Amino acid sequence: GELPSVEALEKVAKAAHAKFKDDQGGKNADYIPALAEVPSELFGVVIVTKNGDVIKVGDVDTSFSIQSCSKVFTMSLVMQESGEQVIYDKVNVEPTGEAFNSIQAIEEGDGRADNPFVNAGAIATVSLIKAKTAEERWDKIIKIYEKFAGSKLEVLADIYKSEAETNFRNRGIAAVLYNSNNLFAEPLMVTDVYTKQCSVGVNAEQLAVMGGTLANNGVNPVTKEKVIDAKYVPKVLAVMMMNGFYDGSGRWAWNAGVPAKTGVGGGVVAVVPNKLAIVGFAPPLDEQGNSVRAQKAIEYIVDTLGLSVFGPGK
Ligand code: GLN
Fold first, then answer.
1. Backbone torsion region of residue 289, taken as left when φ is above 0, otherwise alpha when ψ lies between -120 and 50, otherwise beta
2. In sequence order, which ranges of the chain are alpha helices (DSSP H)?
3. Which of 135, 215, 271, 311 has the fewest CB atoms below 10 angstroms from its CB?
4. Can you tell me which residues bind substrate (predicted)?
5. Residue 204's closest CA among 259, 286, 265, 256?
6. 31 known ligand binder
């Protein structure tokens, strides 16, 4: 199928926003106390095409924490730096069918973290960045996120503080991985860098440009800067398809049929390869920790335009 026209995209984005803006489903994350304070009614929808067109509806300028959507871009960083095999060998790429913060999943298998998008695998991925110090590791992360977004990004200090004070489960996961030689740098340092990456503030437009860079095969469609090699994009999208929604990934593949990644901050970034990215942002989450309104908006857009990667198109 062809890339839909900007007019068609504007129409469907507006319709998706109108259709779901009053949906009361879901509940803000509260295991990170600061996330419970984010206004639940916020709702933004953005589409970025591979040509750099940006279609925006609703609350698209409000910064929210990127949370697990970050995992996509740190996986990209490690592959760009060290090649894809290191992810395949040291993290693995199998769906867990378990919650994002599952400890059982790492205990059950061969000790590896399973895939880069569950917390265990994301923490392992951070440990694979080549760096001598925590500062250097962090610097590489924020620099590549900024290239993906085409704009300056900052940590949301209140979110970072709130999660850093309460992230005992992630510290435990890092310790278990380290104990079985499946974490490749000091566990508390790695967990802290991971926590910081999850606290990066993005608005829906910035996250959509990040996704748009993947839709455009590794080149930022707005700044035209190359961020990662095109050959790594299918690897990222494959993991998004299989574990972007954790134990909700099968349902997402069934309903939407496009690779996507969610975060407990309420963001969902979906990528239609070679065409466009769609971001939905709304804080209330379903049982698996995935934004209710963002999912519905993206499903509606994909369905209306026939964008499923598995479908015949329209
Ligand atoms: N920072 C969050 C955590 O580690 C990310 C989880 C998520 O967005 N699913 O718990």
1. left
2. 6-20, 70-82, 85-90, 104-108, 119-128, 134-149, 157-164, 168-179, 187-198, 204-215, 233-243, 249-255, 292-305
3. 135
4. 68, 119, 163, 170, 194, 246, 264
5. 265
6. no
Q: 79 vs 4, 75, 90, 130, 293, CA distance in Å?
A: 31, 6, 12, 11, 32
Distances from the Cα of 202 to the Cα of 67, 150, 205, 226, 265, angstroms: 10, 11, 8, 20, 10
Q: Which domains does the chain have, with CATH numbers?
A: 6-67+203-305 (3.40.710.10), 68-198 (3.40.710.10)
Plot region of 58 (φ>0 → left; ψ -120 to 50 → alpha; else → beta):
left
So what's the ipTM on this one?
Answer: 0.97
User: Exposed/middle/buried for 135, CB within 10 Å: 0-12, 13-18, 19+?
Assistant: exposed
Tell me: the pLDDT tens digits for 167-197?
Answer: 999 999 999 999 999 999 999 999 999 999 9
- Nearest one of 204, 184, 197 to 291, comparing CA atoms: 204
Are the C-beta atoms of residues 147 and 195 closer than 8 Å to each other? no
Determine phi and psi for 260, rounding to 5 degrees: -155, 160
Radius of gyration of the chain (CA): 18
CA distance 174 to 127: 10
Q: Which atom of ligand 1 is nearest to the CA of 263?
A: 8
Q: Report whether 88 belongs to an annotated binding site.
A: no
Distance 304 CA to ligand 1 centre (A): 31
Please say whether the beta carbons of 184 and 259 come within 8 A.
no
Ligand 1 pocket check for 67: Cβ under 6 Å? yes
Cβ of 170 below 6 Å from ligand 1 = yes
pLDDT in tens, 11-53: 999 999 999 999 999 999 999 999 999 999 999 999 999 999 9
